[in-house]
UniProtKB/TrEMBL annotation:
Keywords: Cell membrane, Heme biosynthesis, Membrane, Transferase, Transmembrane, Transmembrane helix. NCBIfam families: cyoE_ctaB. The chain crosses the membrane at residues 21-39, 45-68, 89-109, 115-135, 142-161, 167-190, 216-233, 239-260, 272-288. This is Protoheme IX farnesyltransferase. The lineage of its organism: Bacteria, Pseudomonadati, Myxococcota, Myxococcia, Myxococcales. Its main location: membrane. It catalyses: heme b + (2E,6E)-farnesyl diphosphate + H2O = Fe(II)-heme o + diphosphate.
Length: 294
């Protein structure tokens, strides 16, 4: 491979990494889930355009985030090798990449889905970049703000089909919103020193480990009954209900074990990993036991 080809390959790889592909994949899966669960038809072309535009919008938000956090990213092991903190990319390139993705993806959302979905995409982009990202260095409440764009993709998938924010779409939004709380508190617990070195606020740094473990339990207490809504709203059937109860009680039990036993980083890492298993299992059950619509 020539030096020029190698350089182009590295640049392309770095641009893709700005979009945080693993996070973007999770967003795409939840958006596709919302689209599949919503009542009504959506043609394959419109569905594909909507998903690609959603991916582009999320990728743009992540690129802007990498640009804004390029200095603090140097102090965290999981981020210091990103293109900007590692010095492999000019910050202006990342900024223009984010702007270009936004300029293409947001209009595509409107054209592929509808105006409502495009507006939700814009809200997700702006709240993530202009609210959540700068607030991370000021207050642990940034987690609540950041959970809004994180919870919007399944609602966007739903509105792409229904062109309305109704009870079903709200239920998916609420589940994703509440799920993020124990997920991100767990990360902040086992990466507490890295957050401190980067100058980022978190619940463990501001409130302490005991309060963090208590908040994990409280959010799980709110999450478990919320996951029953898809059954009550006739979005999914009894197999989903059983899966939601079993997964929810398992998640809540893990959280309570950590709280009552005053457990530390190993428990926090287990909670983080289980949160991923939990979300995967919940959406798999939703998809497999979807109630057919006439």
């Amino acid at each position: 491979m020539s030096a020029r080809a190698l350089t182009l390959s590295t640049t392309a790889s770095d641009l893709i990494s700005l979009t945080k592909p693993r996070l973007s994949l999770l967003v795409l899966i939840t958006a596709a889930g919302g689209m599949y669960l919503a009542p009504g038809p959506l043609g394959p072309v419109r569905a594909l355009v909507t998903l690609l535009a959603t991916a582009g919008t999320v990728g743009a938000a992540n690129a802007f985030n990498c640009y804004l956090e390029r200095h603090s990213d140097q102090f965290m092991a999981r981020t210091r090798n990103r293109p900007l903190p590692a010095g492999r990319m000019d910050p202006a390139t990342a900024l223009w990449f984010g702007l270009s993705l936004s300029a293409v993806s947001l209009p595509a959302l409107v054209l592929g889905a509808n105006l409502l979905t495009g507006v939700l995409g814009l809200i997700a982009l702006l709240s993530y970049v202009l609210a959540y990202t700068p607030l991370k260095a000021r207050t642990s409440a940034a987690m609540l703000v950041g959970a809004i764009p994180g919870a919007l993709p399944p609602l966007m998938g739903w509105t792409a089909v229904t062109d309305a924010v109704d009870a079903g779409g709200f239920a998916l939004f609420a589940i994703m919103f509440l799920w993020q709380m124990p997920h991100f508190i767990a990360i902040a617990l086992f990466r507490k020193e890295e957050y401190a070195a980067a100058g980022l606020k978190s619940v463990p740094l501001e409130r302490g480990d005991e309060s963090s473990r208590a908040q994990v339990v409280l959010y799980l207490v709110a999450l478990v009954p919320m996951t029953l809504l898809p059954f009550q709203l006739h979005i999914a059937g009894t197999w989903y209900l059983a899966a939601a109860v079993v997964l929810g009680l398992g998640f809540l039990g893990l959280g309570a074990w950590g709280f009552f036993k005053h457990l530390g980083k190993p428990w926090a890492r287990q909670t983080f990993l289980f949160s991923l298993v939990y979300l995967t299992g919940l959406f798999a059950a939703l998809t497999l036991d979807r109630v057919p619509r006439g």
